[in-house]
Amino acid sequence: MPAIPDAPPALTPAPAPVSTSVLPSASAPRTAPGDAGDAGGAIAARLAAQDWAAVAAALDGEGWAVLPGLLGAGECAAVAALYDDAAAAGRFRSRVDMARHGFGRGAYRYFAYPLPPLVAALRCGLYAELAGIAERWAARMGRAGDYPADHAAYLARCRAAGQARPTPLLLDYGAGDYNCLHQDIYGAEHFPLQAALLLSRPGGDFEGGEFVLTEQRPRMQSRTAVVPLGQGDAVIFAVRERPVRGSRGDYRVAMRHGVSAVRSGRRRVLGVILHDAT
Description:
By secondary structure, the chain is an alpha+beta fold.
């Protein structure tokens, strides 16, 4: 999900062993993307039901974690349909053709403010659960953290840094489309974790299109993870880097993410980035 024009060119480190880090599923009532009255409570309940200690352990160990079934099939279909809905055109602030900018193939659309209620609920709820992990990571990497508990307060910090454009987006991939390895950096201020939710059915709506992460370790070859996702699953992952415990203490490893080529069908994804853009 590269930014325009802030994302750096995609770099492809050498592949290496594959790892996985999938967490138990949590269930809760499902709601529609535009149903403001129900979206916040339903998403909050599903997030609260997750084992966040296990999420933290997976993020510390691998740099990513999967939350299975965070959205229901109906919710996935409704959010994915916004991409083509002429009546929903005002919900988006821009469309990016990836091939035009050398980011891969396919396209994505950035949501405008106000976000659809379901997207806003996911963004606020994920931030609230991840802020503590982000604070701990910042301390381990020797960086300034001080992430407020409330997402609105964090977005105020983004605005103070000149970053006021919303970054949640819908990505659309057809046969042959792919996303080069990249990092979603949109300015000086960035939250160290983000999420992507698969809206389409692997093996039903599309084939291929695996979510891929690479980890560049100092003085070592890169390590690759292919993340298994089902419809409605969310993957949480490092935006730019994460701390790793070594024999002499913590050190930083650079992370990049992308999507392998879709072999057939159509794959749509909701990207939930927690900082705003310049």
